Structures are given as C-alpha cells and as structure tokens.
Amino acid sequence: MAMNLPPRRSTPTSDRTTVSIPRDPDFSRQLDTWRARVETEMARRLPPATVQPTRLHEAQRYSVLGAGKRVRPALVYATACTLGLNEAVVDDAACAVEFIHAYSLVHDDLPAMDDDDLRRGRPTCHKAFDEATAILVGDSLQVLAFQVLASESGIPRDASIRLRLVELLAIGSGTGGMAGGQALDLEANGKQLSLAEVEEMHARKTGALIHASVMMAAACVPDLNDAVRRALDSYARDLGLAFQIQDDLLDIEGDAALLGKATGADQVHAKPTYPAVAGVEAARARMMSLHRRALEALETIGPAAAPLAALCDWLVLRKN
User: Fold this and answer.
1) What would the mean pLDDT of 2-8 be, rounded to a whole number?
2) CA angle 124, 97, 67 (to 5 degrees)
3) Within the chain, what is the greatest distance between any pair of CA atoms?
4) Number of continuous H segments (helices) and E segments (strands) in the chain
5) Residue 260 pLDDT > 70
6) Cis peptide bond upstream of 53, omega within 30
7) Bridge partners, residue 122, by sequence
C-alpha cells in the first residue's frame, strides 16, 4: 500500500508556531483499547504458568502482564492506524517489542544494574522471585520476542518483511541501541558528560526501541512512500529523546505514587541525566522543542497521522 503524498514543505521550524494535525478528544479510550489488545495477545504468546519450568513461566508472566503504560505497542498500533493497516497485521510486532522492553526492565532492576526494589508499584522480579530467575526471565523473553517474529502467522507472510522486522528489533535492542545505551549509562555513573554524550546515551537506551516500534509497523507496508518513511523516522527519533528527557525530569519532580517507583534515584546514583547536565529549565525547553519537531515531521502525512500526534502529546506531557 503506497501513500502518495505531497513532499514536505521546507518552512523553517522557527517560523511554525502550531501544528495543524487534529487530535482525537477520546484518544485515552483508544489507548486503553490498545493496552487491552496487547495484553491479550502477549498472554496468548507467553507459556502458561502451569507448564514446566513453572517458576520461570510464572515469573515471565508476572514481569510482563498486568501493568505498564505499553508505550511501545501503542506506537506500533498508532503507526499501523496512520498507515491504514489492520491492527492484526502488527500484533506480533507489538508483542515482540514489549517482550524486549520487559526483559530490559527485569535486567535493569537487578542489583548489578540499577538495584531497584519496585517496578510499576510492586516488587521487581528479582525481589518477588530471586536473582537467578530474573536473569532467566530476561533471557527467555528476549528469545521469545524473536520467536514471535519468526513463527507467528499474524504479520505479513513475505519472508523479506519478517527478516526486516527481526533486523529492526535487533538493531533497536542490541549494542547500537538499548543494550549499548545501558552500558553507556552504567559507565557514566559519577562522571561528567557533555550534552552530546547524554543525548547519544538516551538515543540508544530509550530512543532506539521507540524508533524500532514505529519503523517495524512501517516495515509491514512494503511499498511505503519514501517521504512518509522519512517522516516517521524523524518523528520516532525526536520522540524517543523527548520521552527520556521527560523521564529524567519526572525522577526529579514526579510523584512517586503516580510513577509506581521511588524518585530521586538518578541523583543518588550520580547519573548524568539531561537535567543534571543542562539544568531543569534547559532540559524542559529541549524536550518541548523535540516534541514540536516530532509533530512537525507528521505534517508530511497530514490528518491520517492524528494517532501518532496524540500519542506524542501523551508521552511527552505525561505525569507518570
């Protein structure tokens, strides 16, 4: 399905004060629908807790189901909606990217990493079970993500599309993406970083998987217009960095009850977050600039991009 749209205008960013894409006033209801959908789809793909090894499967389901904002699946579904794809075509991609995200959280919470006791308002996996089980949960969820892309029947049967989905998810979660960003984050504790170094760390640790979520849905449209593909690429990159800066700000200013985890951890661990390096007001200004740029990128697509525009607003302006 090709979207033959006019080329993006070259109006300078500084001359634009508004973005004309409309927003759905009931978008929160759509988000709830997508959350419920991916929850059902993930539950179907996860091994039952009654199957051996039962403790590992129970811990998998504990770590994945029943909580979370489902940001990445929502991006998959919103992109599919924007491009006119049926949600069933991208269910596998939505589940796969969330399995990768869930595995990363389980491992990030371990004592060897961030050493967190709470995640989404309840004990982290290694606290609810044990450290060895948590390691295996992460390992097995990562494998399951790629198994879903390789074997499930929902995504297009074209082998080249499946291969591209595997490639995009691997890039987003590997050393050039999420895992590499976590390594940079661990190495940076207690060090002074430049803003460019902080942005690179954020772009990998958080932004890469957000980018993959958008581009995996786009990859399910084999003849997608190049201008639309570039617009989605730009949108996803700017949104990924804005989302992480907001996370940094919420760790300083957020309500722990709303966040479901303790605040102030970044400062305790002397992490070089965006606010720590640039200051709170500069961080907020950068976040809002990225938010505006992400929305402007969607103008290439026009009103059809309303789900992605609404999602951008929600992710950047959220309180938890």
Assistant:
1) 37
2) 35
3) 61
4) 16, 2
5) no
6) yes
7) 119
What is the per-residue pLDDT for 254? Answer: 52
Tell me if 185 sits within 8 A of 209, measured CB to CB. no
Identity at 311, one-letter amino acid code: L
- Report whether 179 contacts 200 (CB < 8 A): no
Torsion of CA 274, 279, 283, 284, to 10 degrees: 140
DSSP 66: S
Q: DSSP letters of 101-160? A: HHHHHHHHTSTTTT--SEETTEE-HHHHS-HHHHHHHHHHHHHHHHHHHHH-SSS---HH
pLDDT tens column, 127-173: 999 999 999 999 999 999 999 999 877 777 788 999 999 999 999 99
Give dist(CA 303, CA 81) in Å, integer: 12
Q: Which amino acid is at 115?
A: D
Span 73-97, average pLDDT: 97
d(CA 89, CA 296): 27
Element (H, E) at 209: helix 208-219
Residue 76: Cβ within 10 Å count? 31
The answer for 221, left when phi > 0, alpha when psi is -120 to 50, beta otherwise, is beta
Two structure tokens written together for 51: 């199957």
Q: Is the dihedral of CA 104, 107, 112, 113 positive or negative?
A: positive
Domain ranges of the chain: 23-317
Round to whole Å and give the CA distance between 127 and 105: 13
Contacts of 299 (CB under 8 A, 6+ apart): 8, 9, 19, 20, 21, 231
Rounded CA separation 213/282 (Å): 28
Q: For 23-317, CATH number?
A: 1.10.600.10
* Residue 76 near residue 215 (C-beta atoms within 8 A): no
Concatenating the DSSP letter of every residue in 257-281 gives: HHHTS-S-HHHHTT---HHHHH-HH
Give the pTM.
Answer: 0.89
